[in-house]
Design a protein that fits this description.
By secondary structure, this protein is of the alpha/beta class. The chain folds into 3 domains: 52 residues, lambda repressor-like DNA-binding domains (434 Repressor (Amino-terminal Domain)), CATH 1.10.260; 113 residues, Response regulator (Rossmann fold), CATH 3.40.50.2300; 129 residues, Rossmann fold (3-Layer(aba) Sandwich). It is built from 12 helices and 11 strands. The strands form 3 sheets. It has a 5-stranded parallel sheet with strand order 2-1-3-4-5, with helices on both faces. Strands 7-6-8-9 form a 4-stranded parallel sheet. The chain has a two-stranded antiparallel sheet with strand order 10-11. Helix 7 links the parallel strand 3 and strand 4. The protein starts with 6 loop residues before the first helix and ends in a 5-residue tail after the last strand. The relative contact order is 0.12.
């Protein structure tokens, strides 16, 4: 019977280390093209294709990553998870998804989201790494139980957080450009002649909201306007909260501003619905723009003017960084520039 080759056999035939063969199989970018070609040639000649169990036995890894998401129904998180899963496949990894639904809580809620219990479950499951997408880490007030659970997680596994970087916590953090996304879209509104602009959506308890509101005010000030006079209505991140923001604006009895800047496309959609329900046309009577594009928004009527954070690229970068961490290497810094999408709404 013909002997079944192992990764060790491939390493000996290619005259490289077992770790190098593993990197080639996992499509790690740290392997030189010359070495990759040499190893791949041996793999192809011997029709070598190790299954997950074989890889796990040799590498002592589960070939599984945990992804902790705060709301899988949110298009932002859904896009990230989709891209993370796609990027995992060529590397031979799979994911286990934990959806905490913590993004659905109101900023003034005292409800404790048991993310620390999820962290304990992940540690007990002997997975290879953890990717945290939002959740309690993005709130200004973080439960002590969460911080304790996060510290235990960091001490056990490679951890990547897509969100806020906490001081004194040693995890890899990937952050989007929360400043320029707002500056780009605010400048667009200003270029259209709008001087009276209101900011709607977001939550005062969420760190990112503060970043975007501050960037909004800074851009108005740079244009010679008085930012303190610009209405800011922080409701939350979903369509109903855009609708709610318009009800609040109309309830003041004051004239509507010339333009609205929503924290994301879903809030913008809710706002436009509320405006239409009150006989106000977009963009004829008021312009509406968004700080964050979500897939599918391009089919909304009117087509939204928004900012693409290139979240699909971010999802791919998450796995590139994780593969680097799993090889005990330092992840590389990278930047993803937000892009203006000019639609019909503003």
């Amino acid at each position: 019977m013909k002997k079944t080759l192992t990764i060790k056999d491939i390493a000996e035939l290619a005259n490289v280390s077992i770790a190098t063969v593993s990197r080639v199989l996992n499509n790690n970018s740290w392997v030189s093209d010359k070495t990759r070609d040499k190893v791949q040639k041996v793999i192809d000649e011997h029709h070598f294709s190790p299954n997950l169990m074989a890889r796990s036995m040799i590498s002592r890894k589960s070939m599984t990553l945990a992804v902790v998401v705060s709301d899988i129904t949110n298009p932002y998180f859904a896009t990230l998870v989709e891209q993370i899963e796609k990027a995992c496949q060529p590397a031979g990894y799979k994911i286990i998804l934990f959806d905490t639904q913590s993004a659905n809580k109101r900023s003034d809620s005292q409800q404790v989201i048991a993310e620390d219990q999820i962290f304990s479950t992940i540690i007990d499951s002997q997975l290879d790494g953890v990717i945290v997408l939002g959740g309690n880490i993005d709130y200004l007030k973080i439960p002590e139980s969460y911080l304790e659970g996060l510290q235990k997680l960091i001490a056990t596994l490679p951890v990547i957080v897509v969100g806020r970087k906490l001081a004194h916590y040693d995890y890899t953090c990937l952050q989007r450009d929360q400043v320029n996304c707002v500056k780009i879209i605010t400048r667009h509104l200003l270029s259209k002649g709008h001087r009276d602009i209101a900011f709607i959506g977001g939550s005062p308890g969420v760190y990112m909201t503060g970043q975007r509101v501050t960037a909004f005010h800074e851009t108005l000030k740079e244009a010679g306007l008085q930012p303190e006079k610009a209405p800011v209505i922080e409701t939350n991140f979903y369509p109903q909260h855009g609708y709610e923001a318009i009800k609040k604006l109309l309830g003041t009895g004051n004239p509507l501003p010339q333009a609205l800047l929503a924290i994301n496309d879903r809030v913008a959609m809710g706002a436009i619905r509320a405006l239409k329900d009150n006989g106000i046309d977009v963009p004829k009577d008021i312009a509406v723009a968004s700080c964050e594009f979500f897939p599918g928004s391009e089919y909304y009527v009117p087509r939204l003017t928004s900012v693409d954070h290139q979240n699909h690229v971010l999802g791919q970068q998450v796995i590139r960084q994780m593969m680097t961490l799993l090889q005990d290497m330092l992840p590389e810094a990278f930047d993803i520039s937000p892009l203006l999408i000019v639609g019909e709404s503003a």
